[in-house]
Amino acid sequence: MSEHDLVIRSGTIADGSGGELLDADIAISGGRITAIGKVAGKGREEIDASGKIVTPGFVDVHTHYDGQSIWAEELSPSSSHGVTTAIMGNCGVGFAPCRKGDHDMLINVMEGVEDIPGVVMSDGLPWNWETFPEYLDVVASGKRDIDVAAYLPHSPLRVYAMGARGAAREPATADDLATMRKLCREAMEAGALGFATSRLSIHKTADGGSIPTFEADIAELEAICGGMADAGTGTFQVVLDAFVGWDKEYQVIERVVESSGRPATFTLASGNDGPPRWRRVLEMIDRTNASGGKATAQIMPRPIGLIAGLELTVHPFILCPSWAKIAKLPIDQQVAAMRDPGMREALLSEEFEPGHPFNALARDWNWLFPLDNPPDYAPPKEMSMAGQAAAKGCTPQEIAYDRLLETDGKGLFLAALGNYENGTLASAHEMLSHPHCIPGLGDGGAHYGAICDASYSTYLLKQYVQKANGYRFDLAEAVHMLSHKAACAVGLNGRGLLQVGAKADINVIDMDRLELHLPEIVRDLPAGGQRLHQRATGYDATIVSGEIIRRFDQSTGARPGQLIRGA
Description:
Number of helices: 20
Radius of gyration: 23 Å
Helix content: 25-40%
Distance between the termini: 37 Å
Shape: globular
């Protein structure tokens, strides 16, 4: 009879603490780690990890699986990249609390902010909840491969408490604030991980309006976070408005942390050019933590960007007036139309019409690059559309247009919007090296047609550990950032560590085989919707609560994932 449920043999362990690597076995029983060292007893199942690294499961603190966690059992791409815990409800958008009459409004917000087609949400969600605790119960009742936790999102909370006034962004009254504070406390007591909001000006609804939380008074955020203080738990997650300035917006963090006593986490990035204001923000974070508060910045390890292409939500010609004539054609007919000299002349000369802010970002020729297989997320500046045009003596539009024709419309572009200061990863590396910064902003479950960044864990290991082209982290440090450090930032202090008694969330990774593949379009959403997915190779095994959910980069069908209720 086997003494253990599972034994991982002879791996090199990076235990998530950032400490020394250890060559040892790991024994697992009952979903927990029972031994680390030389394990004598046999396992019911065994994994030979010789020559491989063994890590804790990774913790992705910024996802939007609020819908996908209900309509799907696999939280991919995240679970394809070693993530075993995903935090959803970020940016203050989600589906609860919500009265029946407000379903369409929340769909409109989610479609605009997170690029999830409306029909996917209307067809894919049962909407069999009203309150946030009821929503958590629905999530808890489902089956999935990895664990999830959820923030209480500000937009639906505001509309639920204020009705049409909340959607119209009217100031909250004292009664409104008291109601939202009470609902926040109730959400924390039911198992919410915290409260989330967005102040970002380019977060728009599908019809182009501002989301309910845009420009909400800081006093409103203090009141709601008072509900977390009342409950004695919860993390405040916020997307600050980068267009106002991270340093100017940081007062939101300072005031909420001071008034509520709750920790905060937020997204931080560098611009590609201009003054490095992010360094000033790092100083502010240090000040917050030195004074007894806690603030953590989430950093994307590669350029924050969009993926553009004819079959996706954005591409360099989508808002040209003539594009409307062929927008609804199949891609082969679009390409045939683009080969016509008249259409070519029109699309190369026309200016963009007004539209969602994301569309214009695919026309920043200085930071628009080809994305091929294997994908290069840190390309040289001369590979940009502007750089290639300068070398060839033509316009950037022509370079982009010809790429689309040469690839029969299948060619992809990377629009690097930030974290690529002066065309290098230096700023991302420096921010990630900071004691109060963690990797984040994977956005899994959202931006289905424009972003596929949930693969950042694989990228960090590949780019900063294996390649280390000028910007390096050692393996133990990188694993620490992806696991325990990330978990602690949102109050999940017991996760992301390989130690006896810990939950058995584990990766076995073949670093020699580790590769990140070009994003691809899959059509597996409700109502036949499509999304971007990105695969990796090199994950020999991913384990959740002692069950192997993925083996050699393929799902095993195991569904041990659960809802995490509270920190």
